[in-house]
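Sequence in, structure out. Go.
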Amino acid sequence: MSTTRVQVCGRLAVTWHGERIEERLPARQGRLLFVFLVVRRATPLGRDEIAEAIGATDATLRPLLSRLRRVLGPDAVTSGEQPGLVLPPDAFVDLDAAREGLHRAEAAVAAGDWARGWAPARIALHTATRGFLPGHDAPWVAEQRRGLDEMRLRALECVGEIGLRMGGGELDAAERSGRRLVELAPFRESGHRLLMEALAARGNVAEALLAYERLRTLLRDELGVAPSRESQAVHARLLAR
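Output:
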């Protein structure tokens, strides 16, 4: 296990070479700087861009970078016109792990390998659900939140599909995922289909038909359209049962 672990989703937590250090990061703006350098570390950034991202000036950015170097070590934060963060090669960053988990989960679902997708789907879901930098408001923060919101929806789709196909005790996770998708993204038909199939698999066919009726009414009243062919196909299978 890596001795350097960074959690940027939810409450900031930093273990640097085995030592917890988030409380030693330089105040609110310094922590914002650290998180920004973590999530953008693969992109060369000019000093002006960094300062603007954290609501600082070049004059206030310099001491913040110096304080970060004192906490992390002189080689962890590069100097010059494009300062950047250098993480150890084996460092763990929760946001990166969530993205990788989602990719693995979706690949497993596409291959029908439900057991292989179970754990990575939950890693992505749990990380995305924590949110990103509560209390901060900046364009790059909003961008990260939008990405996490989409990751959460896709992870819910994976968790639900895997639960539906594995059956048994996992049907409860499939139903919960479907309900959460309908709540978070009511016009995303995949959530409605997932809920319908999960309810039917648990023997609640009438309730599944009612879920379809709610989808049909929503689309008719709000958009003036009918459910997609995929959703209508699920409905037809329910009627056949």
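Check: The radius of gyration is 22 Å. DSSP finds ten helices and four strands in the chain.
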